Amino acid sequence: MSSDSERRLETNLGPGAAASLHLSSTDTDAIGEPNEQSRLLSDDAEGHPPSRKVKAILVYLVIFLYTCGTALQIVPRLQRYEEIVCGELYDSGPGKGVSQSLDCKGNAVQEELLLLLGGEKFFGIVPAILVVIAVILHADVDVANRYGRGKVLAFALFGIALSQAWVIVICTRIFPLPMYLIWTQCLLQLIGGGPYIVGSMLHLLALGAKHKRIRDVGESSSKSTAKETGSTYSRWLAPWNSDTKSAVLFKYHSTFIAGTAVGQLASSFSVRKGRNIWYPWAFGEMFVIVGALIALLLLPETIVENSTIQPSSSEAQASDNDGVSPATPKIDARVRYQEVLAKVKSLWKKTISFVKKNHQAMLLISMSFLGNLGYEALTMEFLLPYISKRYHQDFSSAGLFPTFGQMSQFILFLIGLPIATYTFQTGFGFSSRATGYGLALASCFALAFGALCLGLAPSVFLAITGHIVMSSGTGFMILVSSLVITSFSPGKATIVYYITSILAVIANGLAGLMYSKLISVGLRHEYGLSYVVAACVLFLACLITILAMVSNTPNDDQEI
């Protein structure tokens, strides 16, 4: 399990999951048409669930355990990978002393290590792609609401824990298995859907934790909100007391960053003090499993009895004419294949037609794809080997450097973005769309400038500064997802959401291959080529963001 699963929560799924949050305000089917029931976002059951406050605490506890557990495993996992690769290349096992440490920072070892990490990241997109395709093609079945979001989340977490257990088996060298078999961990993540499903369910549960109906989570209000806050004390707390989707998203990501920072700090200090690397790795695995068990407590409130979208009147009439009930299962595999193929062709035509007619959609999709591609350079699988090799640090020391950037992210999501969003909308009267574009552009420039500093920094101090600046722009993907919702009607927003979700997964896979090679080439010449390329990609995203700001608003009358 790579830390990419963490970043995808922001985006990868990161971006996709964030978009799905905003889509919860309206029910639409898989091809963007309004429907009375939503596949993933329908109402919670009435039942007798735990109190809203208890459920909110449980949701954020699961988020913290999952992110902390995954972060705990990063440093020991990378260090163990390096030891194994070094031992295989130089025929020296662990415990050979200083000479092994020096050899393990050689170009040959680091290039092989980066190849392993890049392949791990690339093959990790398999579960995400299959899940996205399955969600699009099987719009008539709402698995999350049929079995409960908590149960689906728990199942996905168990799948991730199982995949990591497989990596541990390989790395223990109990059996002489090739290291390239770590790429097969993605097959075990198919159990439950992997990080994509985890991110989606955590986002939905975080949104629904305080509301009986997820669609009741409102959007940011206008100036009237400031007048309704009452006392000075209430006005100061208004950005955090708000029940809008943006406020919930900021709280979600604050918890996410806190879990990641705590896990990485604990892991780095543990390994740095010479303790066995298996301790933090085992604790991380245990945290993920405990998170899965706690997720089962959320089950009673997330089951919906009618979890199947009702057929349209035309479909029902056609079925009656054929004398077949709509619920009759299709036994002929060839017929089912033809149905799926027809649906793919229909979705493809509608998507292409929509994007061709709507330049705003094309610009937002480009922003999302380029943002994801550039943002991937910030993941720990690439950042830690780069810092370790270029600045001659072991992984336990290198693991401490990103915590400064994570602190800036925590402040950003907990304080910066809530205050900025609230101030622009209530104090200056900006619309949510204008606020989103302004903050997205600032975030994109921070990402690009930080990546450039990180790639060219001659010292550790400047590299940390670049990482902090880059981390301060991590709200870009959330803001782009929000712009998708505020720029289009619900049906069109659903179409754009699926496009950005699939492209985010593709960007994630491409980044695994691209950055692993660029880091290897750049380190031969003592600079971060991967971060220079990422900066160029992100500056291009900035230009597209400016074009999107000055372009005409989309015509809501253009139906696809």
UniProtKB/TrEMBL annotation:
Cell compartment(s), UniProt: Membrane
Topology in the lipid bilayer: Multi-pass membrane protein
Biased composition (Basic and acidic residues): 1-10
Chain ranges passing through the membrane: 57-75, 122-141, 153-175, 181-205, 277-299, 363-387, 399-424, 436-456, 468-489, 495-515, 527-550
Region of interest (Disordered), residue spans: 1-34
Listed GO MF terms: transmembrane transporter activity
Domain of life, source organism: Eukaryota
InterPro entries reported in the protein's UniProt record: MFS_trans_sf
Keyword entries, A-Z: Membrane, Transmembrane, Transmembrane helix
Assigned GO CC terms: membrane
Main location: membrane
Protein name: Major facilitator superfamily (MFS) profile domain-containing protein
